[in-house]
Design a protein that fits this description.
about 725 residues; alpha/beta; Rossmann fold; Immunoglobulin-like; six-stranded mixed sheet; 20 helices; about 30% helix; globular; binds alpha-D-glucopyranose
């Protein structure tokens, strides 16, 4: 705490209204987007001199996306030594999946089904980011995503609420650790609150058209999990919910966030989303936008400057009570206090940190995120003697390894596929040809690729999305493979050599033809700094794929949005020639690859799902078990999934809901018995008041390898006895 103040409350008592409003005003570092990368351009800072007067006057609470000793130390010194109260600035940034070391994108990490892996990568990211003077990250994103057209699927943990919740909470714990006073920790921000991923038609920024129960059952739990894990801040979303922009939505920012969930941190707008309430058609003027957003529960204004321009006047004319301003300012001052900024405004700055541990972790994380979707006749792993033709637009390029929001990554130090394969096999075993560009043919590219393929024993085909094809404002109506890449793949199919396809992507793609012509298909997402080494480890068998799909892969984009936790309908799809059931006349309504699906180099054979009781009392639990045997003679890491279906309830429930998952090692030819326990709280669903309700009745339960597999066991949850019902009521 600053010299003469022993608490934020004491400091607040000495602040002028302008200084208070200054603590609610956050601005971007003035960066120039430089460099060839259209998605993660190199950020070069413009001289911040024109900010000095604002800082001296206490008109700025902090900056974002500026970092480094010169930038942070210069501005912080002015704040603490030259402003009247010496309140330190807070420096935030989009540290989404790494800092200088890029880890796999969030959707890739979700595919590991190992939340603790994300805790570790978040912790490592915090170590690097704080060394460059950052205090606060605008992560984790906790936006459930069921529509692969949405560009920011890449930043999500996919379509399932439980997976999204566990990863969001794990990232918060990784960023924040046990105490924000630890100078190597970042304050986390859960975003984008709320239901940003429900953008209609997958169109970024679009309205979130969803029922209140779907919002409560599926979209809210990931944000709540992050808050229960202790996230210090919440970022509002660009979209509207029920016709009210999230940034001015009192139901979201006050009733749910504060009154139901007890959130005590502060809420910051997304980039000028407060001002955008005018564009939405809610506010008529900037002053009205400020009144609506602030009274809805938005504490801090990012970038627009509207709070600085209009909050003083709204207080002066009595529209806004100064006590509400004080509550918001206290939340911000307490965050700065928790970060130790009053004691040490330069906390964390230490450019002598060692990046090696992060690179080791990045390689391990990347290996564990890849998902093997097909492996005909054991095409993978490759034989040591195989001569390889590494072909495709991603065979040797450097710019598309990290995926969206890797704006601080030391991209030149990342390892591309060719480098990884050379390190693993040497130049004699490898011939490399691009064959085509990411979304255009190359003159002579296919001919050169065919020649390379003919000279090799096996083709490794590196295809997919460039990183400019997913991320913010990168929604796609056509989520197929670019035609030039399909042309290349079709041409290579005629060479009659095994084709191992590596699919780089920030979302599920529509790839039925590519899947057909591939002997093996490995989804490698965007794996970050250690891409080349990690993929080589998997392709050559130094590690085995253990990822599973966090989002369903459609057969056809007309199916999108497609997700496993769908409602059954009164006429569930029946195979042709049945008519009048929930199916298309032209496309199989099931996904090409379902949620939770993935292969390893071993093979898992699931026994029957069993329950230890056909009926359980209201306060009892049921143990669900299954014996799983490895049958290929290769040890296997299997993501065992527990699904439940509430057969009849006061609101129709999904055909399946994931209630737990666990990655387990099954020894070669060995068997393991997996058990899960379920109680009535695990069977609850949202009531319309925002609480949760469990109803007695029949439940189906599966222990399965993915969302379309297995035969359920059944148990009955008995109604509460009159006494326990009374207990329940008290
Ligand atoms: C962007 C994004 C948000 C990010 C913020 C600051 O528009 O929506 O995720 O944290 O602006 O860069």
């Amino acid at each position: 705490m600053h010299k003469e103040f022993d608490s934020p409350k004491r400091l607040l008592e000495c602040m002028t209204l302008d200084e208070k409003v200054g603590q609610l005003s956050l601005y971007s570092a003035d960066v120039k987007l430089a460099g060839p990368d259209p998605v993660n351009p190199t950020l070069s800072f413009q001289a911040p001199e024109h900010r000095f007067a604002d800082i001296r006057a206490g008109r700025v609470t902090g900056f974002f996306n500026g970092h480094g000793d010169a930038f942070v130390r210069t501005l912080q010194r002015i704040a603490v030594e030259e402003s009247r109260l010496g309140i330190p600035l807070i420096f935030g940034a989009d540290v989404i999946h790494g800092f200088h070391t890029a880890f796999p994108v969030p959707l890739a990490e979700a595919a590991s089904f190992e939340p603790d892996l994300s805790r570790k990568t978040a912790e490592a990211a915090a170590r690097e980011a704080t060394a460059h003077g950052l205090h606060w990250t605008f992560a984790p994103g906790a936006d459930l995503c069921r529509d692969a057209r949405w560009g920011r699927a890449v930043e999500s943990a996919g379509e399932d609420a439980l997976v999204s919740a566990r990863f969001a909470a794990a990232r918060v714990r990784g960023f924040q650790g046990e105490s924000l006073a630890d100078p190597q920790r970042l304050m986390a921000t859960v975003k984008h609150f709320a239901a940003y991923g429900a953008a209609e038609a997958g169109l970024d920024y679009n309205t979130a058209e969803l029922s209140r129960t779907t919002l409560i059952d599926h979209y809210l739990p990931p944000y709540r999990a992050a808050i229960e894990a202790g996230a210090g801040a919440v970022m509002s979303a660009f979209n509207d919910v029920d016709g009210v922009p999230a940034t001015a939505n009192r139901v979201l920012l006050t009733e749910i966030l504060r009154e139901q969930w007890g959130f005590e941190g502060f809420v910051v707008s997304d980039f000028e989303s407060d001002l955008e309430t005018i564009v939405h058609g809610l506010a008529a003027t900037p002053r009205e936008a400020v009144r609506l957003c602030f009274t809805a529960g938005l504490d801090m204004c990012m970038q627009s400057g509207t709070y600085a321009a209009h909050l003083p006047g709204l207080v002066a004319d009595g529209t806004i009570d100064i006590r509400r301003i004080d509550h918001a300012v206290l939340r911000v001052l307490r965050a700065k206090q928790a970060l130790g900024l009053f004691e040490n405004p330069y906390r964390g700055l230490d450019l002598s940190y060692d990046p090696v541990p992060s690179r080791t972790l990045a390689r391990e994380a990347a290996r564990r995120c890849a998902v093997l979707l097909k492996n005909t006749h054991g095409a993978l792993p490759l034989k040591p003697s195989a001569r390889i033709a590494l072909i495709g637009p991603f065979a040797r390029e450097q710019q598309n390894l990290n995926g969206a929001w890797a704006i601080f990554a030391a991209n030149a130090e990342s390892v591309n596929l060719e480098q990884g394969f050379l390190a693993a096999r040497g130049a004699d075993a490898l011939v490399v040809e691009p064959g085509c560009a990411i979304d255009a043919p190359l003159d002579g590219g296919i001919d050169a690729a065919l020649a390379a393929a003919r000279s090799a024993d096996v083709i490794v085909l590196a295809l997919g999305e460039g990183q400019h094809m997913s991320g913010e404002s990168r929604s796609r109506a056509d989520i197929g493979l670019p035609e030039a890449q399909l042309q290349l793949a079709r041409a290579l199919r005629n060479v009659s050599k095994p084709i191992i396809t590596l699919l780089r992507t920030g979302r599920p793609l529509v790839i039925p033809e590519l899947a057909d012509l591939s002997d093996a298909l490995l989804v490698t997402w965007f794996l970050g700094s250690e891409t080349g080494h990690a993929v080589a480890d998997l392709v050559f068998g130094h590690a085995a794929p253990s990822g599973r799909l966090p989002m369903s892969f459609p057969r056809h984009q007309g199916q999108v949005p497609i997700y496993y936790a769908r409602k059954r309908t009164g006429r569930p799809a029946a195979p042709p020639p049945a008519m009048f059931t929930a199916r298309y006349i032209d496309v199989d309504p099931t996904p090409l690859y379902p949620f939770g699906f993935g292969l390893g180099y071993g093979r898992a054979d699931y026994g029957a799902t069993e329950v230890d009781a056909a009926g359980i009392g209201w306060n009892d639990t049921v143990t669900v078990s299954c014996s799983i045997t490895e049958t290929a003679g290769v040890e296997l890491e299997e993501v065992v999934q527990l699904y439940v279906r509430d057969v009849a309830a006061s609101r129709v429930r999904p055909v399946r809901e994931l209630k737990d998952f666990r990655k387990v090692l099954i020894p070669a030819r060995g068997s393991v018995t997996i058990t899960f326990t379920l109680g009535r709280t695990d069977l609850a669903f949202a009531d319309l008041a925002g609480g949760s309700v469990t109803e007695p009745g029949e439940f189906q339960v599966w222990i399965a390898p993915h969302a379309e597999a297995g035969t359920p066991a059944t148990f009955v949850l008995k109604a509460p006895l009159p006494s326990s019902a009374t207990e329940e009521a008290t």
